[in-house]
Amino acid sequence: MPSIRDLVAAIRQREGVDAAIVLGRDGLLIDSQLGPGLDPDDVAARIPAIIGPADELGAATGRGELLTAVLEHRNGLAIVSVLSPEAILLVLVTPRANIGQLLFELRRNREHIAALV
Q1: What is the CATH number of the domain that holds 111?
Q2: Whole-angstrom Cα distance, residue 98 to residue 82?
């Protein structure tokens, strides 16, 4: 059975992926592979502040808790995928990356990925 380290490495090797980070709901780093110039602890610590308000929006609109968020920035996208009540996956991709297949695979394999954490 693959490990969380294997998963992070496989995601990071995809074309257009700059970083793959698995973190706890508390923002503490579990595992990561990033390009140069990124601090994985700093990036991971910022994610819980996104999840809470997104969950509140889901509750207010009857949509439920956040599963996946795609944040588009000028220089790329951030995909936040809640794997379980304890773990989150963050994938940073370039602006030209084709994220359709990546989003499909994350959605389809969410439970399998969560089992690795």
Answers
A1: 3.30.450.30
A2: 20
Give the model confidence (pLDDT) of 68-117 as tens digits: 999 999 999 999 999 999 999 999 999 989 899 999 998 988 888 888 87
- Which two tokens mark 73? 């920035």
Q: Rounded to an integer, what distance in angstroms lies between the CA atom of residue 90 and that of residue 41? A: 12
Show the domain range for 11.
4-116
Q: How many whole angstroms separate alpha carbon 4 and alpha carbon 52?
A: 24
Total number of domains in the chain: 1
Q: How far apart are the first and last CA of the chain?
A: 12
CA distance 105 to 48: 23
The residue assigned the tokens 């579990």 is 30
